[in-house]
Write a structure and sequence with these properties.
about 750 residues; alpha+beta; seven-stranded mixed β-sheet; 39 strands; signal
């Protein structure tokens, strides 16, 4: 019986081992072996030839829903309007396109006189009666409202709760709330046809305003040169800057793009002799005639032969990688990119980048992408505006918003009249005015409110001082920036309370009362770029207001798609707050003697395991953080080395102590060098620390590379030398005394036991 049980146990154990080993082996095969590459076919697109590719927003879902508001919006008073925006993607459309509106309203609205009017691009589409029976409406959209691009959607409410207009003006019961379930439905089909693909650039690689925004990938040869890596990073950063969410544009090698699970649009760049896979086949079938330093932009329609899915490929080619690096500005300079046209283009010479040697331009509301604002009784407020302060700025003085305003002549006249009346009226007359109403009392409540980070501030209105009737009001910003909870973002809204004369009991639509906010209002943020051994103002000093002109990246000799993906993510985070997206300087191992010599002129960003950099081995002793066999020594920083995943630290450059060097490295020799969560931590770092650790549990924290500061920052108490010496001496005496004491007690016990036995 025992033997039977032994055999049964053996069979069960063997089955479990096989069950465990088999999936592990399958996983290894999946991870260790390259997936089966897809087979693709390509069609060269001649100029003016129509090209049909898969739409970015169609495919799995029937149609596309665009939600034009994220939270409920309330329209109050007798007459008020609100502007929204929606974007129509570049896709073939069916006939079933419409706006779906849903709202809630006050039960007191008079159905016979209350309406909601819908306009697109300032053209009225329809008006619905607010009778309370149906709180939703579906408005069909025609070809004009569904042309590709942005459209303005205006919802204008007129409602009353009584026949007397004067009763309605300030009654809080007069309201209409548009719910966030409202949306625009677009009957998008699966394809998009175009005949001038360069004119549409950067479509289809990105499509602004859509849910994903990024729909393409940058493809480089399997063994890209430093020039190609730098050019791909420049294009990636530029395309990412065009998206609302600054989503990183991925970079893949030719083999990885061909084997990836998702078949996407491809922007491929590389020298004509650098390709080995499908791009090589495309060039063999469609040879390019290039001379000297010419740059060729060619569009292809590429199809996955297994699925039949068709995507677009823009091939950026030249005889040398240096030619691509010198002319890639045609895709990253917005003024040059707007001049592109056709499906094929050869560029022999590109304009030199313009250097602005003049004074620094002030930071204005238009610098953040906002335009002029006109506030009146129908449009009394703005949406929430976001002003982001670059994380690499150290503010050095008082910050303020110099608001340039202009009030209408009628409103200015009423304000001045109110001021004159205020000086002469008496207490009894003032009480009578409050009871009966007058122009003076009405204009006394006219005001402009600026809300900054949920804190409202009243702005005084006055007559114009300049020739154009404008004047400037200064709003301090320092108190918002110095708030402990400040996250680098100022959120602004402007709201005007424009009161009409109270004795006029009918709507006054002459537009004579308004407040104008100029887009050239200046945001004063005095600052400096500091260069110290700290992440407190990351990415300074590697990034400044001119971009990355003083920084160089060093890469290992061999890079793969994972390295390029993380590199593009790091670059995107670093240059996200600067408008200068110049081409980064990239060095790849092995470095020549001249390249090593030139490192003295740059701040350095080093990526990956230190052991992969032969040029660093002679300077290895200058590193503040040492590693052995790919594992960082982190114990003295109160870090469990075995659970650490990534580390980043900053120190003086090993090639020039006056420059800085940032190192991003895996903590235990694993693949990759950073993580999005670590980069987000760096952007929000407030402590003056030089080492950031991310554990496998994705916990991120910072310490100082100085051991004494590191211990102090963690609140640990280090024993003094005298106290430690006393403990050591006490321990030694204790080791001697305990055995002696034990022997003495044992001797006494035996003597007493023998004596008692003898007496008995």
């Amino acid at each position: 019986m025992d033997k039977q049980w032994k055999w049964i146990k053996a069979v069960v154990i063997a089955s479990l081992v096989i069950a465990i080993i088999k999936p592990a082996g399958a996983a290894y095969a999946e991870a260790g072996q390259a997936p089966v590459p897809r087979e693709i076919s390509a069609v060269y697109l001649q100029d003016a030839a129509p090209s049909t590719t898969a739409s970015n927003v169609s495919g799995t879902s029937p149609g596309y829903i665009y939600r034009f508001l994220s939270e409920a919006v309330t329209l109050q008073g007798v007459e008020q309007a609100q502007d929204f925006y929606y974007q129509v993607p570049k896709a073939e459309l069916g006939d079933n396109n419409y706006i779906e509106l849903e709202w809630r309203q006050s039960d007191l609205l008079l159905a016979s006189q209350s309406t909601l009017t819908v306009m697109v691009d300032d053209k009225p589409l329809t008006s619905v009666r607010l009778d309370g029976e149906e709180n939703h409406a579906r408005i069909p959209l025609g070809p004009e409202e569904m042309s590709p691009g942005y459209h303005k959607l205006t919802l204008s409410k007129y409602s009353v709760i009584a026949d007397n207009y004067c009763v309605d003006q300030y009654n809080p019961a007069n309201w209409l709330k548009i719910t966030p379930t409202s949306h625009v439905f677009m009957d998008t089909l699966s394809n998009w046809t175009a005949s001038d693909l360069l004119k549409d650039f950067p479509h289809p690689f990105i499509e602004q305003g859509m849910q994903e925004e990024v729909y393409g990938v940058i493809v480089v040869p399997d063994h890209p040169s430093a020039e190609i890596i730098a050019s791909s990073l420049q294009v990636s950063s530029y395309l990412s800057s065009l998206t609302a969410t600054r989503k990183a544009m991925p970079i893949k090698t030719e083999s990885e793009w061909l084997s990836s699970a998702e078949f996407t649009h491809a922007l491929a760049m590389g020298g004509t002799g650098q390709w080995n896979g499908p791009v090589k086949n495309i060039l063999d079938n469609h040879p390019l005639e290039l001379q000297g330093e010419e740059l060729s932009l060619d569009n292809f329609s590429v199809t996955d032969n297994q699925t039949g899915l068709t995507k677009q490929m823009l091939l950026v080619s030249a005889e040398t990688d240096r030619a691509i690096a010198d002319k890639i500005r045609v895709l990253t300079d917005s003024k040059l990119a707007k001049q592109l046209t056709g499906n094929h283009l050869i560029i022999r010479e590109t304009p030199q980048p313009q250097t602005d040697a003049g004074p620094t331009k002030p930071l204005t509301l238009s610098s953040y992408g906002y335009g002029h604002v006109l506030l009146d009784t129908v449009h009394p407020s703005t949406d929430r505006w976001t002003l982001r302060i670059p994380s690499y700025w150290k503010l050095t003085g008082e910050a303020s918003l110099e608001l340039k305003l202009k009030t209408s002549p009628l409103l200015t006249h009423e304000l001045e009249e109110y001021k004159r009346n205020k000086k002469t009226r008496k207490a009894s007359a003032n009480q009578q005015e409050k009871e009966e109403g007058s122009i003076a009392l009405g204009t006394s409540r006219t005001a402009l409110t600026v809300t900054i980070n949920e804190i409202p501030t009243s702005v005084p209105l006055q007559g114009g001082e300049g020739q154009d009737g404008s004047y400037t009001v200064s709003i301090p910003l320092t108190r918002y920036i110095e708030d402990p909870d400040f996250n680098g973002v100022l959120e602004l809204t402007f709201a005007a309370n424009i009161v009409e004369p109270e004795e006029v009991c009918y709507p006054d639509r002459n537009g004579g009362r308004w407040i104008f906010i100029d887009k050239e209002s200046v945001v004063q943020l005095p600052h400096e770029i500091i260069g110290n051994d700290s992440f407190q103002y990351w990415p300074a000093p590697f990034v400044n207001d001119r971009g990355l002109d003083q920084t160089a990246f060093i890469l290992p000799q061999e890079v793969n798609g994972s390295t390029l993906k993380q590199l593009s993510l790091l670059m995107n985070e670093m240059v996200g707050d600067t408008g200068n997206l110049n081409r980064p300087v990239v060095f790849s191992e092995p470095l020549s003697a001249d390249a090593v010599q030139s490192l003295k002129d740059f701040n350095i960003v080093l990526l990956g395991d230190i052991g992969l950099y032969p040029s660093l081995q002679q300077e290895k002793d200058k590193l503040k953080l040492q590693s052995e066999n790919g594992r960082l020594s982190l114990a003295k920083y109160n870090v469990i080395g075995e659970t650490a995943e990534y580390a980043a630290w900053i120190q003086p450059s090993v090639w020039n102590k006056d420059k800085r060097m940032a190192v991003f490295q895996p903590a235990n020799g694993q693949e990759g060098f950073t993580h999005p969560q670590l980069l987000q931590f760096l952007k929000n770092e407030q402590e003056n620390h030089s080492l950031v650790i991310m554990s496998r549990s994705q916990e991120v924290w910072s310490v100082s590379l100085d051991p004494q500061q590191s211990q102090g920052s963690q609140g640990e108490e280090s024993p003094s030398p005298s106290k430690g010496a006393g403990l050591s001496k006490f321990s030694a005496w204790l080791l001697v005394l305990l055995p002696v004491l034990f022997l003495v007690l044992l001797f006494v016990f035996i003597r007493l036991w023998k004596k008692q036995k003898k007496n008995n």
